[in-house]
Amino acid sequence: MVTGSTSGIGLAIARRMAEAGYPVMLHGLASASEGSALVEEFQERYRVKCGFSSADISSEEGCIQLVADSREALGHPAVLVNNAGVQFTAPAHEFPADQWQRILSINLSSAFFLSRELLPDMRESGWGRIINISSVHGLVASENKAAYCAAKHGLIGLTKVLALENADCGVTVNAICPGWVETPLIQPQIERIAQEESVDLDQARTRLIGAKQPLAKPTKPDAIGSLVHFLCGEHAATITGASMPVDGGWTAQ
Length: 253
Ligand code: NAD
Prior knowledge:
Layout: H1 8-19, E1 24-27, H2 32-46, E2 50-53, H3 60-74, E3 79-82, H4 97-125, E4 128-133, H5 146-165, E5 171-178, H6 187-196, H7 201-210, H8 221-231, E6 243-246
Parallel strand pairs: 1-2, 3-4, 4-5, 5-6
Helix pairs in contact: 1-8, 3-4, 4-5, 6-7
The structure holds nicotinamide-adenine-dinucleotide.
């Protein structure tokens, strides 16, 4: 089950896993017809069973709904990728309360509620993988991202606790911490720089990425998909509780 897999990194993860033969539960804020089109495309292209849910996971009920949809479509999910996430930027002293709540609930609480729902089956079957898509902002801070940094740091804390609690039963829990990945999530930040600094979108993208990443190239979403696939494989069986930067050297500084 890959949350937020109708777009960006989540879609790339879902594609990589389907390509490797895993049945995939697709999920995200898309219409029923967009969801069915995606399921059809996946089933035709990758020849694996797929399902889709548009549950809004900003609430506990929404998370429970996603788990129910998933069990109905595919049975018990043995791999959970907590990827869905949103962004909003403003200085903390101007940060709207509703944006704070929205980011904390989607980027952090959903990972807790979904893990809580799926862990009993993973523990009982003796195998499971939980992979949390955190961010460099789970390891270091940037201004104007109070809620996002708080949620992503929290997600790393949750990763460590779940890794310890489930170390005895074949379930590993890890976090991936990407730097800039070119997806719709970062588009508003590119557009803001273009407007504020009167440059075109390409220049704005280079400025945004180069300001933090020594290796001033965005990571391709597929690279995150391949790392998720590796974490599900035999050679990653003893990797647990880790937070892995994929950040062009950002956190090496
Ligand atoms: P995106 O905007 O392309 O996709 C976000 C996905 O989350 C979509 O499928 C959307 O439908 C889903 N979603 C959002 N709110 C939801 C809700 N309430 N209920 C259900 N689904 C919801 O984003 P992305 O760039 O692919 O980001 C994916 C993850 O990677 C996020 O957690 C993000 O914080 C993290 N990340 C992204 C970058 C980057 O540079 N793009 C860097 C580091 C970490």
